[in-house]
Task: inverse folding
């Protein structure tokens, strides 16, 4: 069974440009999460999809970030326009339909975004 | 508010035992996870505790005390491959799987 995959693994862009990150969750997982780790800080929650619906987007930093999950399969996270402080590693995670809080989240390897 | 604290770095010797502590203060608590992350790789699940006590899984054990807001991860018979970052994360609500992470503890295992 394939794990969570993310594309690209690395992205280097200039301030003001647009970048789109993609996450393919494990097949059959309804829950999809985006997290971000800024250098020197802890991993922080961005948002949570259940199928194609946004369940919780309380962690989205501002309106320059747009997440979509059309059809409830893969998800994209677009940053437009990118700022220097957006640099970090963006992780995606997925889990099955939440039955208990202890359902394991499977993480992808992350996309390292560098904004110059 | 919420606060999760872990030591930043630890060093231990191959074959030894190491305990990584995590303290938390969160509004709402529905369990605590430990994840392992090797450099450049995805975090991988190690354990989940929601009730007080010790959960043992092979060389790794995790302990929780809800009244003290405290957990630890115990690694026995350390191997070089255990060198990694260990992440403590709390889940606050049963309505969402949102994880709140500590900064992680980088463990270096030396020969």
Result:
């Amino acid at each position: 069974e394939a794990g969570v995959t993310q594309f690209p693994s690395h992205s280097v862009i200039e301030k003001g440009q647009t970048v789109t990150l993609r996450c393919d969750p494990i097949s059959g997982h309804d829950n999809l999460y985006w997290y971000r780790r800024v250098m020197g800080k802890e991993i922080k929650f961005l948002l949570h999809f259940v199928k194609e619906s946004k369940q919780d987007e309380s962690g989205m930093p501002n309106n320059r970030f747009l997440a979509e999950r059309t059809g409830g399969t893969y998800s994209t996270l677009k940053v437009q326009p990118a700022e220097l402080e957006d640099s970090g590693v963006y992780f995606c995670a997925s889990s099955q339909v939440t039955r208990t809080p202890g359902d394991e989240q499977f993480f992808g390897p992350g996309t390292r975004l560098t904004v110059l | 508010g919420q606060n999760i604290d872990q030591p930043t770095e630890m060093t231990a010797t191959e074959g030894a035992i190491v305990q990584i502590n995590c303290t938390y203060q969160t509004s709402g608590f529905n369990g605590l996870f430990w994840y392992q992350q090797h450099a450049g790789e995805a975090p991988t699940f190690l354990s989940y505790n929601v009730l007080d006590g010790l959960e043992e899984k092979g060389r790794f054990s995790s302990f929780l005390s809800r009244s003290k807001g405290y957990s630890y991860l115990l690694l026995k018979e350390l191997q070089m491959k255990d060198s990694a970052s260990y992440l403590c994360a709390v889940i606050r609500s049963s309505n969402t799987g949102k994880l709140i992470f500590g900064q992680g503890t980088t463990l270096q295992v030396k020969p």
